Amino acid sequence: MSPQIYFLNGPNANLYGLDKSGTYGSESFVSLGERCQRRAGTHGMVLHFRQSNHEGVLVDWIQEARQHASGLIINAAGLTYRSVPILDALLMFDGPIIETHMSNIWRREPFRHHSLISKAATGVIAGLGAVGYELAIDAVVTLMEAHSA
Predict the structure, then answer these.
(1) Which sites bind substrate (predicted)?
(2) What is the mean pLDDT of each run of 10 residues along the chain (149 residues)?
(3) Is 114 a catalytic residue?
């Protein structure tokens, strides 16, 4: 079986493309997921692209990833700034973790400037929109290869 990557998205990410302000771009979440599936496929990876509005579900998926995935990408959305349970679960994941955000969180409201989950992340990609999601896949694959060497 091919190596697996979990790409987890938090609250309201399912609304991408519907935001009139354009903060999160015009591409729908479904389209974004298809784009990410294609990118992972070019690396021979199985991608689990998921979204939940519920903190506990995200924690469950991170714990599941510990058993099945070699790498993890997460956009915890609004939970990035307040979720100790997500941080604790990520700290228990042995492979590389890429934290990603569609928008540049440091150009937004001050409360978004401090991510709790960054403590667990191998690296952070922010502000590049949908392209950042593809780059996160490339990055986690490269880190997975280095991690297994």
Answers:
(1) 75, 88, 102-103, 112
(2) 91 81 74 96 97 98 97 94 96 97 76 83 93 97 87
(3) no
- Residue 136's alpha-carbon distances to 21, 56, 87, 99, 104, in angstroms, are 24, 24, 19, 8, 15
CA dihedral 147, 58, 88, 94 (to 10 degrees): -10
The first and second tokens of residue 90, run together, are: 């990520």
The reply, when asked if residue 52 is annotated as ligand binding, is no
Asked whether residue 103 is marked as a ligand-binding residue, the answer is yes
| 94 in a labelled binding site | no
The Cα-based distances of 20 to 14, 23, 26, 49 in angstroms read: 14, 8, 9, 24
In eight-state DSSP terms, residue 55 is H
pTM: 0.93
Could you say which of 24, 48, 81, 113 is catalytic?
Answer: 24
- Look up residue 24 and give its two tokens: 């999160």
What size, in residues, is the chain? 149
Strand spans (E) along the chain: 4-9, 46-51, 71-75, 97-101, 123-126
Strands (E), 82-122: 97-101
**Of these residues, 101, 114, 133, 147, which one is catalytic?**
101
